[in-house]
Amino acid sequence: MKYAICNETFQDWPFEKAFAYAKSLGYDALEFAPFTINDNAYEISAEERVGIRALADQHELEIIGLHWLLAKTEGYYLTSPDEEVRQRTADYFCELTRLCRDLGGFVMVLGSPQQRNLLPGISHDQALDYAADVIKRADDVLKECNVTIAVEPLAPAEGDFLNTADQGADLVSRVDSENCLLHLDVKAMSSMGEPIDGIIRKHADITAHFHANDANLRGPGMGDVDFLPIMQALKDTGYESWVSVEVFDYDPGIETLASESIKHLLEIESQLQ
């Protein structure tokens, strides 16, 4: 298994300190939230992009991609019936795709629930079509940059669009591009009403990326989720990409979250058959 950690885990730490600590714990990659650089991707200069990638290289870390794509932005919406809004959102995805490429990444996790919730009068099926339209409009740039957008189902507590892996797979099918696949997140799958390992096995052929966390919003091993069948399913299905730690409850502290998460994942990996 290959382990990464989402960079916002380190909160207000300078990148230099965060990168060094992540590497010291055994992580080999970082996954970036664009807002940790600038709330507006258009304003992230070429020099900043080169500098961040060079710093990662200095610490022998890969930057595998982006998540929280639309967090802290305004004017973008994935499921809007307004074509102008959809085009503006697609254009921003194109810029994020270029940012992802410039940092050395290859995957963008499309969660951002506040920019995709169902608008009044819009059915889930209509929203799927609108979302597919946005992603299709960005497809040429995704292909040009060799970046995959990974659609992320989320729990009902976070939003009302794409609450199951099946719905995520439906969106992937509607886009019908090799640069649009599925992302799976343990916290989110905990709300889907079926065994997590079964979800992993069912959608293995379209899964591009994976987030490890607990239903309690902390890291793997810090709650009640049993990661042994989860990791076994990833191994059995031949998953070869990254397992990335993403947390939402920072109360345990940065060092504890980062260190205990990878420690637990490595312990579980040692038990796999």
Structure description:
This protein has 273 residues and is α/β, with parallel strands linked by helices. The chain has a single domain, classed as Alpha-Beta Barrel (TIM Barrel). The protein contains ten helices and eight strands. An eight-stranded parallel β-barrel has the order 1-2-3-4-5-6-7-8, surrounded by six helices.
By CATH reckoning, the class would read Alpha Beta
Mean pLDDT: 98
Q: Cα-atom Rg, whole angstroms?
A: 18 Å
CATH homologous superfamily identity:
Divalent-metal-dependent TIM barrel enzymes
> What is the strand content?
5-15%
Described by its quaternary structure, the protein is single chain
- Please tally the β strands and state the result: 8
Shape: globular
- What is the CA–CA distance across the termini? 13 Å
Using the coordinates shown, work out and report the CATH topology.
TIM Barrel
Question: What's the helix count?
Answer: 10
Could you spell the SSE succession in H and E letters? EHEHEHEHHEHEHHEHEH
- State the domain count: 1
Question: Topology of this structure?
Answer:
Blueprint: E1 2-6, H1 15-25, E2 29-32, H2 46-58, E3 62-66, H3 83-102, E4 107-110, H4 124-137, H5 139-145, E5 148-151, H6 165-175, E6 180-185, H7 186-189, H8 196-202, E7 207-212, H9 227-236, E8 242-245, H10 254-269
Parallel strand pairs: 1-2, 1-8, 2-3, 3-4, 4-5, 5-6, 6-7, 7-8
Helix pairs in contact: 3-4, 3-5, 4-6, 8-9
